[in-house]
Amino acid sequence: MTGHTLALVRDGDVGEMARIHALSFDDAWNGIMLRRILAMPGASGISAKSDLRWTLSGFALFRIAADECELLTLAVAPERRGSGVGSLLLEGTMARAHRSGASSLFLEVAEDNGAARRLYDRRGFRPVGRRPGYYSRPSGSPVDAVTMSVDLDTAGPWEPASPETAAVGRD
Ligand SMILES: CC(C)(COP(=O)(O)OP(=O)(O)OC[C@H]1O[C@@H](n2cnc3c(N)ncnc32)[C@H](O)[C@@H]1OP(=O)(O)O)[C@@H](O)C(=O)NCCC(=O)NCCS
Question: How far is CA 143 from each of CA 66, 71, 109, 120, rounded to the nearest angstrom?
Fold first, then answer.
């Protein structure tokens, strides 16, 4: 697989982010919604770009308020999954949030999302709450949301430490 580099999300990334989001979630966020989220106070995002093609493989959006960071979304293009890009984005988010003064990072994940839950478990996230029936599958069946949190003061250090210089999977 090719290497990936993290960068801060830019306006020109939004179209590709919307494409990846639509391929990743039942309730997709379009470009207008993504721009609105990025304009919220404390909101920011990082992207993972393929070093070979300089195309977007995935992204994470998060929001920092006081000493807390919320991971708003994390998505990797289906054809690029399973190669460490999701881990790279999560670690980049953790590092950036900590550098910006956050001491904890929390998120909500569907109980039946095995890939994401494994990713979070391996980075030290632990369940701290549950919202019964928070998500709804296209079939109509309800799925609980699990709130997970990690203490950023004790979870690091992360490799790579900086979204600007991070890379993974270089040949
Ligand atoms: C969750 C997601 C971001 C992971 O991205 P990724 O690039 O595949 O992640 P990685 O390659 O870094 O793998 C992360 C872990 O998940 C595991 N994993 C990957 N795909 C998996 C699958 N289909 N089933 C089970 N585990 C899986 C990997 O083995 C890895 O575990 P490890 O660290 O123990 O080796 C990606 O699957 C995705 O975009 N899913 C759709 C959107 C989504 O669910 N986002 C999270 C919302 S909370």
Answer: 30, 19, 10, 18
Pick the CATH number of 4-158 from 3.40.50.300, 3.10.150.10, 3.40.630.30, 3.30.450.20: 3.40.630.30
Tell me which of 2, 81, 88, 125 to substitute to probe ligand 1's pocket, judged by most ligand atoms within 8 Å of the beta carbon: 81
Q: How far is the CA of 120 from the centre of ligand 1 (A)?
A: 9
- Site to probe by mutation for ligand 1, drawn from 118, 120, 159 as the one with most ligand atoms within 8 Å of Cβ, is 118
Each residue's pLDDT tens digit, 16-40: 999 999 999 999 999 999 999 999 9
